[in-house]
Amino acid sequence: MPDVMVVGLGPSGSCAAAAAARAGLDVVAIDRRRHAGTPVQCAEFVPVMIERDVSNVEAATRQRIRRMLTFVEHQEAEETPDFPGRMIDRITFDRLLAQEAATEGVTCLFETTLQQIEPDGILRLSDGSACRPRLVIGADGPYSRIGAAIGEVNRELVETRQVTVALTLPHDATDVFLRPDYPGGYGWLFPKGAVANIGLGVLAEERQRLKPLLGALHAELVASRRVGTRATGLTGGAIPVGGRLRSVGRIAGMPVLLAGDAAGLTNPVTGAGIASAVQSGTLAGRAAAEWLGGRARALEEYEEELGELFDPVFARALRRRRKTLQFYQSGSRPDAHALRAGWIASPLYWAA
């Protein structure tokens, strides 16, 4: 009977587990993967503000980013000069966070899945063990079983596909490609030293188009002599884009907190979620410790704090996203003006 069970050892789960253990709690964390961080399912860009929350992010950094270039349809790039961030090695990043949790005393169990949640709150695991923790933190991604158990499900998703290619020349910008052929998403080229991640996201119901669309984008970049022809490291996955879910619930009287993708904490327009995963995970771990320490409103305050941090930004993103999607729903396609209005680097996006 651990104090806290954390399901998922991505950035949100590792940060939650570490924060709870740091407060003196007995914490067990499980993850279905063999190792933290694999397979990589994101473009690996993090904003500069993550430095406040992850002190050793430099160890996982592969390149600094200075600016953003936005390519609307096939027009010339529009530059956002002040867009600082880092391209990280996601495997290294996740393993650093998982190691920090282990150092704090968390029992980290990899290749272990949650098999069943029984009506009395007992959690049965794939290794044959069972436990009834005092509190559960669901950090198990966009298809969270813990979230489903409390009635919170990410229903709006974007599917992504990404390859790694050689970068012909050094590049210090994140490149974003906005086109009507990418419904609900966008294409990207994110440099990572000598290589770059080229990827694309679209509405989940359009996922069958990902392979040919990404192939065409890669071919364009090869023709412009920006990248090499050989693509490696094929990956992809789902990103929740429907906004924040209710992040506090109960299973058979046992308190449950959600963090990261499980709580819908990815930007509905950009899909960015690493920084919010770290932030929400840390807050969840602290809230768990405070509640188990006798602070009655700690869980409510966790929900309130997530709302204060994310709701204003996500509300605008959802409005812009849904306005762009209306074109497809009406049988038409967004023009260049509409695409700009739906992207964060454009002044149109921030207009009232």
Helix and strand layout, with pairings?
Blueprint: E1 4-7, H1 11-22, E2 27-31, E3 45-47, E4 61-65, E5 67-72, E6 78-80, E7 85-88, H2 90-103, E8 107-110, E9 114-117, E10 123-125, E11 130-131, E12 135-138, H3 145-149, E13 157-166, E14 173-178, E15 187-192, E16 195-203, H4 210-223, E17 232-240, E18 248-251, E19 254-258, H5 274-292, H6 298-329, H7 336-341, H8 347-350
Parallel strand pairs: 1-2, 1-12, 2-8, 5-14, 12-19
Antiparallel strand pairs: 3-7, 4-7, 5-6, 9-10, 10-11, 13-16, 13-17, 14-15, 15-16, 18-19
Structure description:
This protein has 352 residues and is an alpha/beta fold. The protein folds into 2 domains: 4-60 and 88-155 and 242-314, FAD/NAD(P)-binding domain; 157-240, D-Amino Acid Oxidase, subunit A, domain 2 (D-Amino Acid Oxidase, Chain A, domain 2). 30% of the residues lie in helices and 27% in strands. The strands form 4 sheets. A 7-stranded mixed sheet has the order 6-5-14-15-16-13-17. A 6-stranded mixed sheet has the order 8-2-1-12-19-18. Helix 1 runs parallel beside helix 2 (90-103), helix 1 packs parallel to helix 5 (274-292) and helix 5 runs antiparallel to helix 6. The N and C termini lie far apart (51 Å).
